Amino acid sequence: MTSDDKSMIIIGAGFAGLAAGIYGRLNGYKTEIFEMHSQPGGLCTSWKRQGYTFDACIHWLVGSNPNTSMNHIWQETGVAKGRKFVYADEFYRAEGADGRTVVFHADPARLEKHLLEISPADREPITDFIKGIRMCSKFNFPSDKDPFLTRLRKQIGTFLTFMKYGGEFKKWTTVTGEQFCNRFSDPLLKQAFREIWIPEFSMVFLFFTFAYLHQRNAGYPVGGSMPMSKALEARYKSLGGIIHYNKKVARILTSDDRATGIRLVDGTEVFAGRVVSAADGHATLYDMLDGKYLDPATREPYEKWPVFPSLLFVSLGVNRAFEDIPHSISGLSFPLKEPVMIADKQRERLPVHIYNQDPTLSPEGKTAVTIMLESDYYYWKKLSEDRSAYVSKKEESASLIISLLEQRFPGITEQVEVTDVATPLTFERFTGNWKGSFEGWLITPENASTMMKPMSQTIPGLQKFYMCGQWVEPGGGLPTSIMSARRLLKQICREDGRRFSANH
Predict the structure, then answer these.
(1) Cα separation values, 191 from 135, 196, 424, Å
(2) What is the pLDDT of residue 166?
(3) What is the reported pLDDT for 173?
(4) Which pLDDT score, from 0 to 100, does residue 274 have?
(5) Residue 487: which residues within 8 A CB-CB, separation 6 or more?
(6) From residue 225, how far is each of 123, 221, 267, 320 by CA, in Å?
(7) Given this model, what pLDDT does residue 151 score?
(8) Residue 218's Cα: distance from chain center in Å?
(9) For a disulfide at 60, which of 157, 218, 300, 470, Cβ 3.0-4.6 Å?
(10) Pick from 114, 94, 323: which is nearest to 196 by CA?
(11) Contact predicate 55/224, CB 8 Å
C-alpha cells in the first residue's frame, strides 16, 4: 500500500470499520482493513454449534422502516438489502412471584392502559413514561444528516420540534434508569423497569427505543447478526476494498507527529496516507499509540465514564418449540424460588431470551435460547489464572442456569442439546473490547451532551489519524457505529476539498 493521502488503513472489521471502508471506497480512497478475528462484524456476531446459531448482538435494528433516513444508510451500506424484518408486539415481560406479569407492549396506548391496571397508584411515573415515548417519536434521530446542532441550524422542522420539546428532552437526559425506577411504589413495576434498562443510562434513550418500536422502526432482522456483518463485508469487497483477517495490529506508526501506518504483531509494517482506528478505544490510545497523545480531554472518558457491563453469556440449543411463549424483542424474566449465587453475583431473578421468532437459528421444532447476566470482568480474569478453575466455573454456571430454568420451563433439562458459555474474557479475546464490555460508553447525565455535540474523531497532536465507532459515539449500537464512520469520511473529504458521495 502506498503512503499517499488517498490511501487509508482501517483497524477493525466491525460495523464502523467496514462502513469506513465502504464510504472510503465510494469517495475514491484506497482502503485496507486489518482485523484480528477470522470473520467480520466485531461485536455484531453469532456462532454456530451443532445446528444452532447463537447470537450475541442484535435484538432490534433501528432504521428497519424504509421510510426513515436511517434506513437510507442501511441501503447505502448493503445491510438492508434483501433483509426480512419481523416485528414483535412485546418488548419484554417481567413475571412476578405473586402471579402478576408486567408486559412492555410496543404500542404506547396499550402499554399505558396495562401499567395503570397493574398499579393505579403509580399513575404519575407511568404518564411521564408514555409522554416521553410520544415526545421522542417527534425527533428524527438517528439520522443520516449532520450532527444534531448542525441540523438545528439548517432545518426549520428540526428547529421547531426542539423549540417545543427541547426542555423536556434535556430534562430526561439527566434522569437515569435507577432514578426513574425509584419513583414507583409497586414493587413489581419497580423491578420490571429496573430490568429493562441499565441503571446508569439516561432515560431519554429508553423513550427512543419504545418510540422506534411503536413506529415499526426497530424490527428484528431474520437470521440475526452475522448475515448483516457479512452483507457489509460483501458491499465493501464489491467496491474493491481489501480485508486482511487474523491480522492483529500491535502499533500505529508515527513520524513527526503524523500517523504513517501500522505494525502487526508478526512484525509486518504497512504504510498509508491515513490511519483510521475502528478498534477498541483503550487499546488504540494506550497500547497502539503507547499513551503518547493523551491530553486531559482524551483521557477523561477512560478514567471517569462508565462502560456497558461485561457479560456471562450462556447459550442453549433446546429441543422445544416454546409455542406458548409470545414473541418478544428482549425476552422475559422470572423470579427464582430462592436467591442463588451464579458466578460472582447473587441472583433473585433470571432473564431469558427465547428466539422462537427466528426459525433460521435452529433446526425445525427446536429453539435457540440465551441468558445474559452482568458479570465482573476482573472476577473472570482472576479465575483464568487457573485454567481448570475457569473452565469449571463456566460449566458449573451453565448447569446451575439450566436447573433454574427448570423452575419456569419444566422438562427443559432433558431437552437441552447444546450448551455454550461465553465470559467477559471471551468477548475480549475475539473483539479486543475493553474490560470485555458488550458495547462501549454508557450515555449518562455526565456525557449526554455528546448527543448534541459529538466527540472528536481526532486526537490532539497527531495528524492523519482518526477514530470511529462506539468509543467516539456514546450509547453504542449499530446505527451510531455506521453513522460515526459516515461522519468521519465526510470530515476527511472536507479536509481534501472533495465533495462527499454515498452513491456508486
Answers:
(1) 25, 9, 25
(2) 59
(3) 85
(4) 98
(5) 147, 454, 457, 468
(6) 38, 8, 33, 23
(7) 43
(8) 13
(9) 218
(10) 94
(11) yes
On whether the CB atoms of residues 262 and 34 are closer than 8 A, the answer is yes
CA-to-CA distance for 384 and 347, rounded, in angstroms? 23
Buried b (16+ CB within 10 A) or exposed e, 46-66: bbeeeebbbbbbbbbbbbbbe
- Give residue 477's pLDDT: 87
Rounded Cα gap, residues 60 and 91, in angstroms = 10
- Which stretch of DSSP H or E encloses residue 346? strand 345-354
Cell 423491578 belongs to which residue? Answer: 191
Q: What is the mean pLDDT of the chain?
A: 92
Measured between alpha carbons, how far is 82 from 488 in angstroms, rounded to an integer? 27
Distance in angstroms (rounded) separating the CA atoms of residues 46 and 206: 25
Residue with cell 423470579: 335
Which segments of 68-117 are extended strands (E)?
Answer: 85-86, 90-95, 101-105
Report the SS3 class of residue 94.
Answer: strand
In this prediction, residue 153 carries a pLDDT of 46
The predicted structure's pLDDT at residue 446: 79
Instruction: Provide the residue count of the chain.
Output: 504
For residue 460, what pLDDT is reported?
94
The closest of 496, 446, 493, 494 to 474, measured between CA atoms, is: 446
**Fold type of domain 7-44+225-306+439-495:** FAD/NAD(P)-binding domain (3.50.50)
**Cα gap 65→278, rounded to integer Å:** 27
pLDDT of residue 265: 98
Helix (H, G, I), strand (E, B) or coil at 481: helix
For residue 313, what pLDDT is reported? 98
pLDDT of residue 387: 96
**For the CA atoms of the chain, what is the radius of gyration?**
23
Which pLDDT does position 115 carry in this prediction?
Answer: 98
Cell 472489521 -> residue = 13
Which 3 state secondary structure label does DSSP give 174? coil
Which residues in the chain land under pLDDT 70?
1-3, 140-167, 451-452
Please, is 213 exposed, middle or buried when counting C-beta atoms within 10 Å of its C-beta (0-12, 13-18, 19+)?
buried
Alpha-carbon distance 431 to 35, whole Å?
9
Amino acid present at 292: K
* pLDDT, tens only, 388-431: 999 999 999 999 999 999 999 999 999 999 999 999 999 999 99
Give the span between the Cα atoms of 183 and 124, in whole angstroms: 9
Neighbours of 501 (CB within 10 A): 12
What pLDDT shows up at residue 451? 65
Residue spans per domain, the chain? 7-44+225-306+439-495, 102-215, 311-431
